[in-house]
Amino acid sequence: MNQERKVERMFWLSAVLALAMVAAVPADERTAAEAPPGAPPAAKDDKKDEKKKEDDFPKFEEVTKEHKEIVGPQGVTGFFPLFYAKKNDQLLLVVPKAMLEKNFILATSIAGGPTFAGWMWDDHVVQWREYDKRLVLIEPDLRYKDGGKSPVADAIQRTYTERILLSTPIVTKRGNQDPVIDLGDVFKKDFAGLTQIFRGQMDANLSRWAEYKTFPLNIEVAVDAAIMQGDRGGMKARVHYSLIQLPSDNGYSPREADNRVGYFLTPVKDWTVPHDSDTIFKRYINRWDVRKAEPDKAVSDVDPNYQIVFYIEKTVPVKFRRYVREGILEWNRSFEKAGLRNAVRVEQQTDTVHADKDPEDVRYSFFRWIVSGRPFAMGPSRANPLTGQILDADIIFDDSMARAWEMQYARFGHVGAAAIEDAQLQEFFKRHPEWNFVSLQERLLPESTRYAGVDLTLDPAVAARISSKPGYCTCAVGLAHEMNFSLAYLKAVGKTDRSDDYVGQLIKEVAAHEVGHTLGLRHNFKASSWKSTEKILGTTDPNQATAASVMDYNPGMFHEDRDKQTVFVSQTVGPYDDWAIAYGYSTHQGTEHKDEAALLKAITSRAAEDGLAYGTDEDTGFFSPDPLSNRYDNGSDVLSYCKHRMEMVRRLQKDVADWAVDDGESYEQLRRTFNMLLFEYGRAAGYAARFIGGQYVYRDQKGDPNARMPFEIVPVIKQREALSFLADSIFSDKDFQFSPDLLARLAAGRWGHWDTDSFDSQVEYPLHDRIAMTQWGTLFQIMNPNTLNRIYDAQLKVPADQDAMTIPEVINRVTAAVWSEVESGPGGGKYTNRKPFVSSIRRSLQRQHTEMMINVILTRPGTMMAADVHAVVALKLKDLADRVGSILSGGQAQQIDDFSRAHLDETKSRIDRALQAKYEL
Question: Which of 15, 464, 634, 637 is the most buried (most CB within 10 A)?
Answer without folding.
Answer: 634
